[in-house]
Predict the 3D structure of the following.
Amino acid sequence: MTREEQVAYCLNCELRSFDPKKGVLCSLTNDYADFEDFCDSFKLDAAAKNRNTKHADRQSEKQLLKDTLGLSNFGVRSVTVAGWITTGFGGIIFLFFLLFGGVSLWGIAFMIIGLITVNKGRKQKLKCSDKDVLDSDF
């Protein structure tokens, strides 16, 4: 188990302590966690777990808002779909100006940003599908 995984585990324990120089410590040993899979002394701090869960949810919502170019506010939860919407919007702007004898750099910019977002969404999808299924997931 990595230090990061141990800290995530310890943040939900009543027996955690904090040292500004070292970070999250076990209050029983006043040192870093040394367990491998689970801690025998773990005592759930329900309030801390609730707080940490809410914080993680807020962080993931902020990241989704950023990844979908703000379209998650309108119900678009897929980064790839947000990219295609942005690309289509840029194409419409570009064609509108083209029909009236001009060229819109805004339309081109939206199409480029949209295609970059589509690519990002596809990479995220591939990254998620590559994860191994663990026995603990069942």
In short: Helices lie at 3-10, 46-67, 79-99, 105-129. The chain has a mean pLDDT of 88. The chain has four helices and two strands.
